[in-house]
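Weekend entry, working from home. Most of the wet-lab plans are on hold until the incubator is repaired, so I used the time to fold the two sequences that have been sitting in the queue since the last round of cloning. Logging both here for the record. First:
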Amino acid sequence: MPLLIVLFTLIPALELYLLFKIGAQIGGFNTILIIILTGVIGASLSKSQGLAILAKIQNEFAGGKMPGNQIIQGLMVFAGGLLLLTPGFMTDIIGFSFVLPGTRHLLMHGVRKLVIKGLKNGNIHFQTFGQGQYHSYGHRPQDQQVKPGVFEAEYEEKKDEE
């Protein structure tokens, strides 16, 4: 709950403060131009980086490997792209650090630790299916029940018998 308060109140307030302060220094038109430029550049960069990561994910899946690092990097690029489309200077700095390959690789170690922690405590859970194989990553603690209104299902693809 406190994290959500910070995300939805404190950060936008700081962004507005920075926009007004910087706008007073360089002018309103220049500030708006910078916001538009970072959005366009960020969207383009996110698309190119995302497509490159998607190609790496497909290659690793084709080689029978689980592309864990590429999936995390793909999520980082996605988050960075969203931040770059959000007006503001602070979000642009964080967004570019997630989208640019050099800084993304530096941040990868910390993000990977967070993902592993989430997998271990059951906050993150994902599964992959393919070629008759089933893989599950992460676990749900035994005492944690599925909430009402939520159902889980598994399926097995049956081949038509001829």
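Second, folded right after the first finished:
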Amino acid sequence: MVEFTPLSGAVGGFVIGLAAVLFMAVNGRVAGISGILAGVLTPVRGDWAWRAAFMAGLFAAPLAFWLATSEKPQVVFDHPLWLVALGGVLVGFGARLGGGCTSGHGVCGMARLSRRSIAATATFMATAMISVFVLHHLAGF
């Protein structure tokens, strides 16, 4: 079981929110990971470099943490790796189907009071709750 750490969660949430606001203020764009990744995989001329830099930053952050603290970030899977991978594929499919991802809708869209993002966030949160209930209480994972 993963330890509940509200302080680090609150700090992480604040940093994500601050980064999303700064990204919007500086670039005029929403920090939606699925859209940014899609732009890296299907590049548009003059639009690829900032997207690649953003994605590289997602990998550089844990490395910077490791170098700064000498503490290797731990990745713990409470479920079989195949189930985690399947969940990732389904989230990716849902992100493309819904025209955005949890970060784009949940962090950026909700902050802008976008009706579409509020509906999308309510949908994926309800789906997540149902999935956790089914996996933990009915399927035995």
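Plan for Monday: verify the second prediction. The chain has one domain: 6-138.
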